[in-house]
Amino acid sequence: MFQNPVIATEERDGLPNPQRIWAVMAASLALVMSVLDANIVNIVLPTLSREFGTTPSTTIWVMNAYQLAITVSLLSFSSLGDIYGYRRVFLSGVAVFCVTSLICALSRSFWMLTVARVLQGFGAAAITSVNTAQLRTIYPRKYLGRGMGINAMVVAVSAVAGPSVASAILSLGSWHWLFAINIPLGLLAWGMGQRFLPKREERQYRKFDKISAVANALTFGLLIYSMEGFAHHERMDYLILQLVLLVVVGVFYIRRQLKQEAPLLPVDLMRIPIFALSVGTSICSFTAQMLALVSLPFLLQNMWGRSEVATGLLLTPWPVATLFTAPLAGYLVEKIHAGLLGCVGMLVFAAGLYALTALPSDPPDADIIWRMFVCGAGFGLFQTPNNSTIISAAPANRSGGASGMIGTARLLGQTLGATLVALLFNLTNAQPHTFASLFVGIGFAAVAAVVSCLRLSQQMPLKRREP
C-alpha cells in the first residue's frame, strides 16, 4: 500500500507537562463550544418561534442549519488537516466560530440567524474534524487511550448539556447571550491553542480532492434536505428530483472514494465489521437522543407549564448523569465488551424515555428529574465505549478518517432526530406537546441496543492489539 510521505514530524512522543495540560484544555474548550452549540438553542425554540413568527417545525431550522453545515464539511476539513496541519485548521475554525457567534448574537430576523448558524457550523466543523487527530500529537502513545476517554466524555456531556447551560445564561439575559458567550470563550481557546498546541505535525504530500469535497457536500446535503422535504411535506415532484440527484451524486461519490488511496469518506474502514457496527449504533443512538432533546423543551413548556429557566434546570440531570457514567464506562470497557456495555446503556436509555411518557399532565419536578437522570446514565454508559471502539478498530495511520466518521455519525443521527421531530410535529397538526417523538426515540434506542449486541461476535480491537 502506498504510504504518503510526511513533510514534518514531532520529535517527542507527545507533549511534556504542563504544555500537554494546556493543549488539552484548549482543544477541549473549543470542542465543548462546537458540540454544545448544536443543542444550546433547544430551550429557546418556542421563544424564537413566537418572536420571529415562525412555526415550530420551521424554527427547528435554527438547529438543522448548524448541523447541516457541519455534516457537509466535516470530512473535507479532516482531509485539510492531514494536508495543511491540524493546528492550522483548528485555529482557523475557532476564529470563524467567534466571528459568526457575534453575528448570531446580533441577528434581528429568523433568516439572518439561520444563515449565521450555517457559517458558525463551518467553524465548528473545522474544530471537530481534527480534534481526535490532535490527541495523537498531544498525548504520549501509552496515554492515548486515556486521552480518547476524556475526549469521548467531553463530547458526550457537551452533546446534552445545552439546555442546562442555556438555562443558566437565560436566567441572566436574553437568548442573544447564548451566542455572545462564545466570543470570550473562543478567544481564550484560540490564545491557548496558539501558545500550546504542537507546531510541528505530520503532514501528507497530496492535493486536496476538491471533486470529492463537492460530491461529499452534495451527497450529505441532498440527503438531509430530502429528509427535511419529507418532514415539511414538500411537493412530491421536487422530492423525487432530489432523490434522483442524491442517487446519482452518491453513487459517483462512493465509486470515487473506492479508488482513492486516502479517501475523503473512509469506506475502506467500513469493511471492518466492528467498526461498521459501531458507526451504525452511533447513528441510531444520537437519533434517539435528539428526538428527546428537541421535543422535551416543548413538552416541558407547552404541556407541563415550565418556564425557560425551569426547563433547563429540569434537563440538567441528564448531562450530570452522563458526566458520572461516561468515565465509569471508559474504565469498564477495559474489562467488559463494548457491545454488551452499549446494549445495556441503550436499554437503560430507552427505559428512561419510556418513563417520561408515563408522566401525568402535571408532574412534580422530582418525577421529571429522576427520569432525566436515567436517560443520561444510559447514554453515558454507551457513548464512551462506542467511540473508543471506533478509534481503536481503525489502523493508527487512519485515525483521522475514524475521527471524521465519529463526528459524521453523530451529526447524521442528530440531524435525522431533529428532522423526525419536525415531521412528527407536522403530522400532529403542529402540536408539539405529544409523546410521539419520545416513542420514536425509544424505537431507535432499541435498534441501537440490538446492533450493539451484534458486536459481541467480534473481538475487541484493544484486546486484539495487546501483546
Automatic annotation (TrEMBL):
<feature type="transmembrane region" description="Helical">
    <location>
        <begin position="238"/>
        <end position="254"/>
    </location>
</feature>
<feature type="transmembrane region" description="Helical">
    <location>
        <begin position="21"/>
        <end position="40"/>
    </location>
</feature>
<dbReference type="InterPro" id="IPR020846">
    <property type="entry name" value="MFS_dom"/>
</dbReference>
<dbReference type="GO" id="GO:0016020">
    <property type="term" value="C:membrane"/>
</dbReference>
<feature type="transmembrane region" description="Helical">
    <location>
        <begin position="407"/>
        <end position="428"/>
    </location>
</feature>
<protein>
    <submittedName>
        <fullName>Drug:H+ antiporter-2 (14 Spanner) (DHA2) family drug resistance MFS transporter</fullName>
    </submittedName>
</protein>
<dbReference type="InterPro" id="IPR036259">
    <property type="entry name" value="MFS_trans_sf"/>
</dbReference>
<keyword id="KW-0472">Membrane</keyword>
<feature type="transmembrane region" description="Helical">
    <location>
        <begin position="368"/>
        <end position="386"/>
    </location>
</feature>
<dbReference type="InterPro" id="IPR011701">
    <property type="entry name" value="MFS"/>
</dbReference>
<keyword id="KW-0812">Transmembrane</keyword>
<feature type="transmembrane region" description="Helical">
    <location>
        <begin position="60"/>
        <end position="77"/>
    </location>
</feature>
<feature type="transmembrane region" description="Helical">
    <location>
        <begin position="150"/>
        <end position="169"/>
    </location>
</feature>
<dbReference type="GO" id="GO:0022857">
    <property type="term" value="F:transmembrane transporter activity"/>
</dbReference>
<feature type="transmembrane region" description="Helical">
    <location>
        <begin position="274"/>
        <end position="300"/>
    </location>
</feature>
<feature type="transmembrane region" description="Helical">
    <location>
        <begin position="338"/>
        <end position="356"/>
    </location>
</feature>
<feature type="transmembrane region" description="Helical">
    <location>
        <begin position="175"/>
        <end position="192"/>
    </location>
</feature>
<feature type="transmembrane region" description="Helical">
    <location>
        <begin position="89"/>
        <end position="111"/>
    </location>
</feature>
<keyword id="KW-1133">Transmembrane helix</keyword>
<feature type="transmembrane region" description="Helical">
    <location>
        <begin position="117"/>
        <end position="138"/>
    </location>
</feature>
<keyword id="KW-0813">Transport</keyword>
<dbReference type="Pfam" id="PF07690">
    <property type="entry name" value="MFS_1"/>
</dbReference>
<feature type="domain" description="Major facilitator superfamily (MFS) profile">
    <location>
        <begin position="23"/>
        <end position="460"/>
    </location>
</feature>
<feature type="transmembrane region" description="Helical">
    <location>
        <begin position="213"/>
        <end position="232"/>
    </location>
</feature>
<feature type="transmembrane region" description="Helical">
    <location>
        <begin position="312"/>
        <end position="333"/>
    </location>
</feature>
<feature type="transmembrane region" description="Helical">
    <location>
        <begin position="434"/>
        <end position="456"/>
    </location>
</feature>
